Amino acid sequence: MGYESIYWEDVSEGQELPAKSRLMTRTTIVATAIATRDFTPVHHDHEAAQREGAQDIFLNILSTGGLIGKFLTDWSGPEGELKKMTIRLGATVFPGDALTSVGTITKKYTEGGAHLVDVDFNLTVPMGPHAWGSATVALPSKG
Amino acid sequence: MSEGVYEKLQAMVGEEAGPFESPDGVNRPMIRHYCEAMEDGNPLYSDEDYAKKSKYGGVIAPPQMVQAFCMPPLWPKREMSDPQARAVQMMDEAGYYGVVATTTSQEYFKPMKPGDRLSYTIKLVTVSPEKTTRLGTGHFITSEYTYRNQDGDVVCIQPFTVLKFKPATG
Q1: Do A35 and B40 touch (CB under 8 A)?
Q2: Please, which residues bridge with residue B61 across strands?
Q3: How far does the CA of residue A97 sit from the closest CA of chain B (Å)?
Q4: Which residues does chain A have with pLDDT short of 50?
Q5: Residue A113 maps to which CATH number?
Q6: Among candidates B84, B72, B73, which has minimal Cα distance to B142?
Q7: What total number of domains does chain A contain?
Q8: In this complex, do B33 and A36 lie within 8 Å of one another by their Cβ atoms?
């Protein structure tokens, strides 16, 4: 089918996920806000964002979750299954920011028959860390 | 004054509201629109032939999309009174008008398939004692969203923490 997945047996603790970067345009910020059905004005209305004390419109939290999920399953392939993620929130993402995603496998284990890895991830913008935390992904097993 | 609001908030801990219904439930057009914006090419979300052969037997929604399905409509406006919103309003009235989301988390229990109807409840879980942070002095308020499908199965549990604070430079 042309869709590759990573097997649990082929990863190890300490392994880094390939880093990814995406230019977050004004269109990206608005498109992701609306696709997540978040109509809060600070995510699409420049004047409203400035009235709230922000320099510009900024990425909404639902989209941060969406981008982390994508980052993880882009790496694992479609047989990888996101089980859980915990996200700490820092700097906001403004139009024109490059958003860089990195991740490291911190734990490889089995639980209840599932083959799991814990991944620490960090999404950063030029101003600093935007979102960081830990996720659990179930990977397919050769066994 | 600040102790007064803290005590009132403590008394609200454990209060739950809902269920609130997802306006559209799980559907292919919203999944496609979401994946388009995220640039998520996972074939489980878009390729029926691939997804049919997967353990799901068909296309599923991205698990992290659960809250998007449940966002209240812009129009007609819903009258919603939930303990999280009331806690935030009480903090505003007590002068803690700054707000910043600090932590969110999601754990997934069931895949979401087109045709699924979703709803959620929201519960106030904890209110921290007053803390001094870089932003100012305030309280961390944690709520928990529980999303269920039409069979009553829990799809996702999502704790969400905000800091309500008196801005340090204010």
Answers
A1: no
A2: none
A3: 16
A4: 1
A5: 3.10.129.10
A6: B84
A7: 1
A8: no
Is the confidence metric ipTM above 0.95 for this complex? Answer: yes
Q: Which residues of A touch B101 (CB under 8 A)?
A: 61, 89
Q: How far apart are CA A67 and CA B35, in angstroms?
A: 10
CATH architecture of B2-25+66-167: Roll (3.10)
Distance separating alpha carbons of residues A107 and A119, to the nearest angstrom: 7
Question: What is this structure's pTM?
Answer: 0.95
Token code pair at residue A33:
């806000």
- The strand pairing partners of A81, in sequence order, are A138
Q: Considering only A123-132, B43-52, B57-66, B79-88, which range has the smallest mean pLDDT?
A: B79-88
**Which run of H or of E encompasses B43?**
none
From A22, A74, A78, residue closest to B44, measured CB to CB:
A78
Cβ neighbours around B97 below 10 Å, total = 16
Residues of chain A in contact with residue B107, where contact means CB-CB under 8 angstroms, are: 83-84
Q: Is residue B170 very low, low, confident or very high in pLDDT (cuts 50, 70, 90)?
A: very low
Q: Residues with Cβ < 8 Å from A82, sequence gap 6 or more?
A: A69, A72, A73, A135, A136, A137, B63, B64, B108
Nearest CA in chain B to A30: B37
Which residue range is the domain that position A77 belongs to?
Answer: 15-138
Q: Which chain A residues touch B134 with a CB distance below 8 Å?
A: none
